[in-house]
Each structure stands twice: as C-alpha cells, then as structure tokens.
Design goal:
32% strand; transferase activity; Hexapep; 200 residues; Transferase hexapeptide repeat family protein; 19 strands; mainly beta; Transf_Hexapept/Carb_Anhydrase; transferase
Length: 200
C-alpha cells in the first residue's frame, strides 16, 4: 500500500486497522486502533498533522489535509462518508460526516452530530454536540434524535466489523467467468436501520 514518509514525518498505523491498498497515507498521520481507510482515500500529512482516533472509518475517495501548523483531528468512532473532504477541522466523538460533504479549516463538529450528505461547513463553524446540520452552507436544523444516533452507531459498527473482515479475507483475485449457483450475499446480523436523517 502507498504509505510515504516526507522528511522526518513517518505515518503511524496501528496493526489492528485496515488500509486499502489504493489509499495514500503521507507524512504526519497517526491512525489509531480498529480503523478502516477505504479505496482511494488520501490522507496528506505533508503540511499539518492528521490524527485518526480509534474505531474511525474514512471511506472511498475521502481527502483529509491541513494548512501548515494546523491539525485535522477525528475523535474515536468518527464516520466519514464517501468522497468527503476534511481540511484542518475537528470531528467529535461518534460524529457522522455524510457523503460528499466539505468541512473547512478550524470548524468543529460536536460529538454525536450528523452532517447530511453534500453539506458545506464553513471555516471556524462550531456546532454543539448532537447537532443535525444540513445545507450549503450548512445550518443547524435541530438536535439528533435517539433513533438517528442509533442509526449512526449501527453504521459505524458495520465498518468496525468490515475492518476485521478485510484484514481476514480481502484479497486480489481473478474474476469468475459465470455466476455460481447459490451465489452468497452479505447480510448484516444487526437488522435494518431506521430512515436516513434529513430524509423525512
């Protein structure tokens, strides 16, 4: 996998975490325990530092970066959706950043908050815990409900499980030439999630 030092800055990755072979990790990056870093994610610690707490997931095509002498921090159980961009911001414990969001420099997303898909968080924005943020620029709509937080938590648990599944069984193969009889499908043992926040 492409993991690079720059000058004296060498990434640190806990061995319990999974980094997809197409993800790129550069420089001053610290990745904690049981994290999932997805395909084509780019974590560039070539200016500021990047700190990923335990049990976080950073999904496909995400970009994480910072200005010099700044840090981008993800507290434990952060959930970063596909193609999100985080720049020099602070993501609180158990917060969810939706698909295709942008979170700008020195913004702080409070713990257990949910940022809806395609939202834009302005620089220096600071939201309290359990906030539901929607829009471009994002606005605080209301407090995250217990049902919505349970939905978020279930999704994060799925990625914690995926981390172990990848460590155990993900490998490069040649494709089959036809569909096998009784082709297996993945099914979660945790049941169905409630409606996606912001969709009602």
């Amino acid at each position: 996998m492409p993991i690079y030092a720059i000058e004296q800055h060498i990434p640190v990755v806990d061995p319990s975490s999974y980094i997809h072979p197409t993800a790129t990790i550069i420089g001053d990056v610290v990745i904690g325990k049981h994290c999932y870093i997805g395909p084509n994610a780019s974590l560039r610690g070539d200016f500021g530092s990047i700190k990923i707490g335990d049990y976080c997931n950073v999904q496909d095509n995400c970009v994480i970066h910072s200005f010099p002498e700044q840090a981008c921090v993800l507290e434990s159980h952060s959930h970063i959706g596909h193609a999100a961009v985080l720049h020099g911001c602070h993501i609180g414990h158990h917060a969810l950043i939706g698909i295709n969001c942008v979170v700008m420099d020195m913004a702080t997303i409070g713990s257990e908050s949910i940022v809806a898909a395609s939202s834009f968080i302005k620089s220096r924005y600071n939201c309290p815990p359990r906030s539901l943020l929607i829009g471009s620029p994002a606005k605080l709509i209301r407090t995250v409900s217990d049902e919505e937080f349970a939905w978020k938590r279930q999704g994060t648990d799925e990625y914690i499980e995926l981390t172990q599944r990848c460590l155990n069984s993900l490998r490069e193969v040649s494709p089959l030439t036809e569909v096998e009889t009784d082709r297996p499908t993945y099914s979660s043992v945790k049941g169905h999630a409630p409606k996606t926040p912001g969709s009602q």
